[in-house]
């Protein structure tokens, strides 16, 4: 069996690209397929297409793999010298082969448009030398690895096709690594013209995005992947509803940044747990939305560092608006306030006015809320994996509650809940009422978010019925 890293390096070699370019494999339906040792064999009818989705067009220099081979050879040579006192012929031969190959490559540097070489001869570290992401790697080491990969990738040009796909709810987050997601988040800020409009320096945006990534925890659901999905859905909604022509750009910045920050430093245990267990967070925030208050405070803690402050060039009035808007949007994600916010939106809906400040503020909260709970609007395979993550986090919490003798919510209890039962009621009573209301304002959302959610309800209802029938048969 081939190691995952080896498999992806094999594909890199086939595509003749450096270690920091982003490669994706597509099936005949155009869906991204994970590059892994478990990849199904292709056939004439089901062939794969390998595509470089982000590359550095201006790059020049030596392929990083070759540098890596050279340094490994040097290391080997010095080891052998230590042990044997002389360089064996085989190493001399290998060295001359690498030299000759380098000379050949130098003579074809005019072919750099193929994306074969690195930028300015600045030899970036190859993925070959990357330590595998194994449990023995500390969180800090893992973060630094992602930072390095992000830095290496951040000047890449993401293809038009991927940029367009990024604007749709069909986007499959599971096919992208952390550093790649950071590149995509950078694309979202760039393509909404935030850098120009708010004088955000690229390195400040990159520092900010990286700090955001570092402040999400490695927990089953409320992790950086969730942060990415919610932000990507918000980004998609902005484009699908053409909000750029209806709202000031500052409001779009508030919504996208709120989505990005809305679950920062989530501990994996919900507000009810915080309050019942009288945690530090519940004490600090007097049982009032302790998590959401914390997420928001962490966000402004990151922005308080000058090197991460994407808001530093705003006027004081603009800053006041962004801060107020983000606090409102992030606090609105507390599901305990779901009905309050939805009812408010329903009441203003018949005469909705984009120029009315109060209307606009409710809409912004609704947009963040919809993005937050939009997994079921995604393709079934993407959504189902998210449900597994959510239930895992729920079960972790209820197990702890049982151990501590705290009250246990039925919807989190592994003895009471199943995937279908969890989804049918959530879709019926939470998702459909919320998504239908937003679709009244933006009818085009029907096909993009409402229809997939209806299909998910049908799917889980069928499963639920089948489960009940089986139960009856077993009892009879
Ligand atoms: P969040 O904690 O992510 O800010 O708020 C969303 C909450 O809504 C989650 O914690 C979870 O309780 C609930 N939720 C979101 N998506 C789903 C889903 O697909 N199924 C169920 N049953 N609950 C969900
Ligand atoms: Mn969330």
| Termini separation | 47 Å
Bound heterogens, unique = guanosine-5'-monophosphate, manganese (II) ion
Return Rg in Å: 25 Å
Percent of residues in beta strands?
under 5%
**What's the oligomerization state?**
single chain
Structure report:
By secondary structure, this protein is mainly alpha-helical. Helices cover about 60% and strands about 5% of the residues. A 4-stranded antiparallel sheet has the order 2-1-3-4, sandwiched between helices. α9 crosses α16. Manganese (II) ion binds near residues 226, 230, 262, 263 and 372.
Keyphrases for this structure?
4-stranded antiparallel beta sheet; binds guanosine-5'-monophosphate; Catalytic domain of cyclic nucleotide phosphodiesterase 4b2b; single chain; globular; 3 domains; mainly alpha; 476 residues; binds manganese (II) ion
Short account of what is shown:
By secondary structure, this protein is mainly alpha-helical. It is built from 19 helices and four strands.
List the helices and strands and how they pair.
Elements: H1 4-15, E1 22-26, E2 32-33, E3 49-55, H2 64-84, H3 89-106, H4 139-153, E4 157-158, H5 160-165, H6 178-191, H7 194-197, H8 202-214, H9 224-240, H10 249-261, H11 271-276, H12 280-284, H13 290-303, H14 316-331, H15 338-348, H16 357-372, H17 380-404, H18 419-441, H19 445-475
Helix pairs in contact: 2-3, 4-6, 4-8, 6-8, 6-9, 9-10, 9-16, 10-14, 10-16, 13-14, 14-16, 15-16, 18-19
This protein binds guanosine-5'-monophosphate (5GP) and manganese (II) ion (MN).
Guanosine-5'-monophosphate is lined by residues 263, 333, 335, 372-373, 375-376, 387, 390, 422-423, 426.
């Amino acid at each position: 069996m081939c190691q995952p890293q080896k498999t992806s390096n094999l594909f890199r070699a086939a595509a003749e690209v450096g270690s920091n370019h982003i490669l994706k494999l597509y099936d005949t339906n155009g869906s991204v397929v994970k590059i892994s040792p478990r990849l199904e064999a292709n056939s004439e009818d089901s062939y794969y297409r390998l595509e470089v989705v982000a590359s550095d067009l201006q790059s020049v220099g030596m392929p990083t793999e070759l540098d890596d081979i050279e340094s490994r050879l040097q290391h080997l040579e010095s080891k052998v010298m230590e042990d044997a006192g002389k360089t064996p012929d085989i190493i001399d031969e290998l060295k001359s082969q690498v030299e000759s190959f380098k000379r050949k490559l130098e003579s074809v540097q005019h072919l750099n448009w193929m994306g074969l070489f690195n930028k300015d001869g600045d030899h970036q570290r190859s993925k070959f030398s990357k330590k595998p992401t194994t449990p023995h790697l500390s969180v800090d080491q893992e973060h630094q690895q992602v930072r390095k990969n992000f830095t290496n990738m951040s000047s890449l040009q993401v293809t038009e096709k991927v940029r367009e796909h990024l604007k749709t709810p069909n986007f499959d987050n599971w096919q992208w690594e952390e550093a790649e997601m950071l590149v995509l988040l950078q694309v979202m800020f760039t393509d909404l013209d935030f850098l120009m409009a708010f004088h955000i320096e690229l390195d400040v945006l990159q520092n900010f995005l990286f700090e955001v990534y570092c402040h999400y925890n490695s927990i089953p659901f409320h992790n950086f992947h969730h942060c990415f999905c919610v932000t990507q859905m918000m980004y998609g909604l902005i484009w699908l509803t053409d909000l750029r022509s209806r709202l000031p750009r500052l409001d779009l910045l508030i919504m996208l940044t709120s989505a990005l920050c809305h679950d920062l430093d989530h501990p994996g245990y919900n507000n009810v747990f915080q309050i019942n267990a009288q945690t530090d967070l519940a004490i600090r925030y007097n049982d009032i939305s302790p998590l959401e208050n914390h997420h928001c405070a962490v966000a402004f803690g990151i922005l308080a560092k000058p090197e991460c402050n994407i808001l530093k060039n705003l006027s004081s009035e603009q800053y006041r608006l962004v801060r107020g808007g983000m606090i409102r949007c992030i606090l609105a994600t507390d599901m305990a306030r779901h009905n309050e916010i939805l009812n408010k939106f329903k009441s203003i809906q018949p005469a909705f006015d984009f120029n009315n400040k109060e209307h606009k503020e409710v809409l912004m909260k609704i947009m963040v809320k919809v993005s937050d709970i939009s997994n079921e609007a995604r393709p079934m395979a993407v959504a189902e994996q998210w449900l597994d993550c959510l239930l895992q986090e729920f079960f972790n919490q209820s197990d702890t509650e049982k151990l501590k003798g705290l009250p246990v919510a039925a919807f989190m209890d592994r003895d009471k809940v199943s995937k279908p039962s969890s989804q049918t009621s959530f879709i019926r009573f939470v998702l459909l009422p919320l998504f239908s209301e937003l679709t009244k304002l933006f009818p085009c959302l029907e096909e993009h978010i409402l229809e997939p959610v209806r299909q998910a309800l049908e799917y889980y209802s069928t499963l639920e019925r089948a489960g009940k029938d089986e139960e009856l048969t077993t009892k009879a």
